[in-house]
């Protein structure tokens, strides 16, 4: 009986394919792709200001609301934050990735790889929480500043209107630091993978042809590491755009995209506006991916 | 390939500034996690004073007995188990289909599976939320599970597919030639072969679900998973010592399985796939 069923299936590969593919396909089409489409549809509805009900009627007025100055500012602020976080991550990640790929012994490499992936996979909330401890007014940074007798400098920095705040725990600088910390492993690993693929012979050839180490680095290694940098930046950029936890824990009243989406759909029940807002990061990410492709970042991946 | 035994580079030494900045990056990654362990023992109940005014063990039993924490932990574990199970089934099915068959749209499958992780968390969150509310489904335990399972599928899929690609198809043919039927071949040849890949995928999916907070915020009703509970404690601290201890517990609960998963995948050098 089982043998006959087995033969029956063996002779009908299309049926097996269907049986294998159908459950995940249905799940994703219904739960995910369907949800994305519904969100898109929702963004063309609008919230009736008087009744507080969502009106199911095609309109562009929700998108028009995105273009008022406050909302444009939110997009600008979030994109700028994502950009600076990405750049900082590249600067911090590169030396470590470079060391891992070129100089570390195999055992050291295994150790470093674990040292990078462990934070990557350990709890996001806990890692955010650790910065609550660090940035607090009575926390380790203030203590360290006092130890070095630069607490005056810290106070002066915090009085800056743009970057400061009542304490580091409530400031743009705080948000920036936490983002850099949380997304850093996502930058280290792709750069390391890209550098790993640079053939040693290429570096030797560059030296043989008379380039000094700095020239080799700039003209051979950097261009070849570039796809890794782009791959990493896609993570850091996208993750920063969509995060609302960090801005609401370390920020003041100024909004970031994620926080705005949460507020619109939560307290005001304005799902159309929240949905339209979400199209922002999607469009920004698609633009980013297109630019990355144009720069040739995917050719080497 | 990462762990290939290579001859150490020709005695080349890293310049000191490179070593220094690499060490600095490592410290930056790990000091915050060490502080979590320190603060679990602090006697300070109203702030985050550094250095801690004193150290105590008394908050550990208090935290473990805290009913809110227990309820949140239990809910998180239940969600993670169900989401992981669903992801295991769907991910393995999809990986088998993509590996064994050539069909129209095959390339788009992995793209579709990775989307829930690759797009910003709020996109996945708000998309599922607007679907749920449009269909008038009440937010519940099950809506959390559905959201989690969706972004967990890709880790299982990546691990299993990588294993399939590295194992030789001739073993399956040999099994068939020797008279085993499809089911016997699956049970005696394919399953043992992908066993550790399934385990690694399951551990990673579990830890993804265990930690998730952004999508959960949108798909949960009044239920509080552990990460949501911690988030609310950070927004409005009510019980700092208990939160401190919980943070340490979470690090311990997630770190060990992940190290284990790394080991079983690293020895066969596979991608653990995806991101958070």
Describe the structure.
The complex is a heterodimer of chains A (301) and B (276). Chain A has 14 helices and two strands. Chain A is mostly helical and 301 residues long. Chain A has a two-stranded antiparallel ribbon with strand order 1-2. In chain A, helix 10 (200-208) crosses helix 11. Chain A is globular and about 60 Å long. The model of chain A has no long low-confidence stretch (mean pLDDT 86). In chain B, helix 3 (67-100) crosses helix 6 (141-166). With 276 residues, chain B is an all-alpha fold. Chain B starts with 15 loop residues before the first helix and ends in a 10-residue tail after the last helix. Chain B contains eleven helices and no strands. The longest helix of chain B has 34 residues, at 67-100. Chains A and B meet through helix 1, helix 2, helix 4, helix 5 and helix 6 of A and helix 1, helix 3, helix 4, helix 5 and helix 6 of B.
Largest sheet of chain B: none
Which architecture name of the largest domain in chain B does CATH use?
A: Orthogonal Bundle
Q: Distance between the terminal alpha carbons of chain B, to the nearest Å?
A: 23 Å
The arrangement of helices and strands of chain A along the chain is HHEEHHHHHHHHHHHH
Helix content of chain B: over 70%
Structural class of chain B: mainly alpha
Global mean pLDDT of chain B: 83
Radius of gyration of chain B over all CA atoms, rounded: 23 Å
* Count of helical stretches of chain B: 11
Q: What is the CATH level 1 assignment of the largest domain in chain B?
A: Mainly Alpha
N-to-C order of helices and strands of chain B:
HHHHHHHHHHH
The oligomerization state is heterodimer
The CATH topology of the largest domain in chain B corresponds to MetI-like fold
Shape of chain B: globular
* Overall form of chain A: globular
E-strand count of chain B: 0
How are the strands of the largest sheet of chain A arranged?
1-2
Count of separate structural domains of chain A? 2
DSSP summary, beta strand count of chain A? 2
Q: What CATH architecture of the largest domain in chain A do you see? A: Orthogonal Bundle
